[in-house]
């Protein structure tokens, strides 16, 4: 889809997940919760990290569209986590974002080609993220996971062979959990 290389200014603790989850992960734990999409500069950073800077406008309208898409994605993922399937309200929210675009397929000089078309340019990144979530759901909704650390709000797509990945990052959240268990053993 795009050439993705994290922008060096990107402060997020988990980068490089599939586009839909990468958009969800623009919010991460902190007091208050950190939000990369709090302003236009963060939008530019996210678009660059997602490999979309050359294709998507970084203005206020694009920021509003991405925030709407992030809320729709969050509702679907939250329902998956809590109920095993998205509810009617979450489905309606995601479908509202998806209504802004479509996938166009055609035969080109190099063979079959597909491209995203949106009704307004500011919806391209939002639509691509929503469409990406559909692809992940098709691969297995059970592999879309929230980090198991109680203080973490990040999500990831579990590509492990046995589907038992628990942490957004073993180096961060996994080690915190191990250290807490060790401390409890030593304290007891």
* The CATH superfamily title of the domain at 19-144: Jann2411-like domain
What low-confidence regions span 5 or more consecutive residues with pLDDT below 50? none
Strand content: 5-15%
CATH class of the domain at 19-144: Mainly Alpha
The main sheet orders its strands as 1-2
**What is the alpha-carbon Rg in Å?**
18 Å
Tell me roughly what share of residues is in helical segments.
Answer: 40-55%
> Tell me, what's the shape?
globular
CATH architecture of the domain at 19-144: Orthogonal Bundle
Largest sheet: 2 strands, antiparallel
CATH names the topology of the domain at 19-144 as Jann2411-like fold
The number of helices is 6
Average pLDDT taken over every residue: 91
Amino- and carboxy-terminal Cα gap: 52 Å
Helical/strand content category: alpha+beta
> Would you list the SSEs in sequence order as H and E?
HEEHHHEEHEEH
Number of strands: 6
């Amino acid at each position: 889809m795009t050439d993705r290389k994290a922008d060096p200014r990107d402060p997020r603790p988990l980068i490089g997940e599939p586009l839909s989850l990468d958009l969800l992960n623009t919010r991460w734990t902190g007091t208050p919760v950190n939000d990369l999409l709090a302003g236009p500069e963060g939008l530019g950073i996210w678009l660059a990290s997602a490999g979309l800077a050359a294709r998507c406008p970084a203005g206020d309208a694009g920021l509003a569209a991405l925030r709407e898409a992030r809320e729709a994605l969050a509702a679907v993922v939250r329902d998956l986590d809590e109920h095993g399937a998205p509810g009617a309200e979450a489905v309606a929210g995601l479908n509202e974002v998806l209504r802004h675009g479509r996938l166009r397929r055609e035969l080109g000089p190099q063979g079959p080609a597909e491209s995203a078309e949106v009704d307004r340019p500011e919806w391209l990144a939002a639509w691509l993220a929503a469409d990406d979530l559909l692809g992940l759901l098709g691969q297995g909704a059970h592999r879309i996971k929230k980090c198991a650390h109680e203080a973490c709000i990040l999500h990831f797509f579990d590509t492990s062979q046995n589907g038992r990945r628990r942490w957004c990052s073993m180096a961060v959240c996994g080690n915190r959990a191990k250290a807490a268990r060790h401390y409890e053993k030593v304290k007891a």
